[in-house]
What we know:
Layout (H helix, E strand, L loop, with lengths): L9 H11 L7 H7 L4 E5 L2 E4 L4 E4 L2 H4 L8 H13 L12 H13 L4 E7 L2 H18 L7 E5 L8 H6 L3 H4 L9 E4 L4 H4 L5 H19 L4 E6 L15 H12 L2 E5 L13 H4 L6 E4 L11 E6 H7 L14 H16 L2 H18 L7 E7 L2 E6 L15 H12 L2 E2 L1 E3 L2 E4 L7 H24 L10
Parallel strand pairs: 3-13, 5-6, 5-7, 7-8, 8-9
Antiparallel strand pairs: 1-2, 2-3, 4-10, 9-10, 11-12, 12-15, 14-15
Helix pairs in contact: 1-2, 4-14, 5-14, 10-11, 15-17, 16-17
The structure holds pyridoxal-5'-phosphate (PLP).
The site of pyridoxal-5'-phosphate (PLP) has 17 residues, from helix 6.
Amino acid sequence: MAMISNQLPTDELQALDAAHHMHPFTHGGELAQKGARVITRADGVWLNDSDGNRILDAMAGLWCVNIGYGRSELAQAAARQMEELPYYNTFFQTTHVPAIALSQKLAELAPDGFNQVFFAGSGSEANDTNLRMVRTYWAAKGQPERNVVISRWNAYHGSSVGSGSLGGMKGMHMQGGLPIPDIHHIDQPDWWSEGGDMTPEAFGLERARQLETAIKELGPERVAAFIAEPIQGAGGVIIPPDSYWPEVQRIVDKYGILLIADEVICGFGRTGNWFGSQTVNIRPHIMTVAKGLSSGYQPIGGSIVCDEVAEVINSVEFNHGYTYSGHPVACAVALENLRILEDEQIVQRVATETGPYLKEKFEALADHPLVGEARIVGLMGSLALTPDKKTRAAFEADAGTVGFICRERCFANNLVMRHVGDRMIISPPLVISKDEIDILIERARKSLDECLERLKADGLMKTRVAS
Length: 467
Ligand SMILES: *Cc1c(COP(=O)(O)O)cnc(C)c1O
């Protein structure tokens, strides 16, 4: 059997990687100089690298390995499905058991009124589907001019042309001609960085009301939908003030526009409920799913569609789909993943055991001199680093300089925490135990201590002067 050898020395693997492999969201030249870290195996919440380190993965890969690594049940589900029916399409009036079973299961897990699923290969693809679906919905209802989708700056909805346009990452928009027309962005509800002198409550209302202002300016008859993550993930785990979502819901209802909840991170237990929409108490029309749907064991995404929208879309021929929409192996693996989440009551454990336990320990990190704010919902949390807690000041150095230093200290201490600007974020596998949470917190604190020493030594504990 042909195998990809793990036996080469690390530096040879790194040289081959640098020679042939282009990495996503990476400065290729810089990485080639430094050499990528080679991950070889994983089990539970633990990664092994090619140098024999054992690393606690507090990011669950890329927010996706909800049931943890190394579950052979998923490997077996994939093998069985590959033997039986490795592939067939769902385009030409055909279907297969895995797609039927998974769509039924998702309808059962989703809130009432969600009974239909359109499958994709990823979250990006699913949001591309959503963009076309909401516009098709309004066109089918005789309102083709309703084609503007409102989103938020610093949102992440994927990296394809459509989903990258829906997202609000300025660094992405700068490359390759994004955004496409008729996507409109409003500000995000990030009180820590942008709230100024307002209370969080007042700020949450102000940011929500930007939606109403945008709808009025664009013309209510032109707005198709608002898309948002219940809690922004890649933007830095931005947990909105409590006043935010109820006000957004009021505005969405008032103007009768569609609400797309991008649940790619929040879905499947991350926030302590099956869906983040339940945690923030909103009623979306479409929910984007991917990542935790298969715990990352297979690439799969989808749009879970409410009855009202599904009925209209099903009344026309929707000229859209992917070769791998409803891929049988991915569906079989996702089903097995959902079975484990249910049978082992993993979502409940996040809500009642591991979530509250991590919250207590994580929020206690706010006493660290570098940490201005430590906030967490379920098992997704964020530390805002600052040189001055009282004023919530930014560092004088370019945003991300300090976050990067902290992340390097985490790596050196065998902990994967990611930085977004100068926020440190976590999103560990949902199966993390209390003992492992203790290790995570201990390593995080040690890394923060070392980071602080470095900042002092390098004269980086300076506050940016407002320009
Ligand atoms: C990761 C992510 C996506 C994109 O999913 P891909 O599978 O990487 O295409 C979309 N939305 C959110 C909220 C995400 O976190």
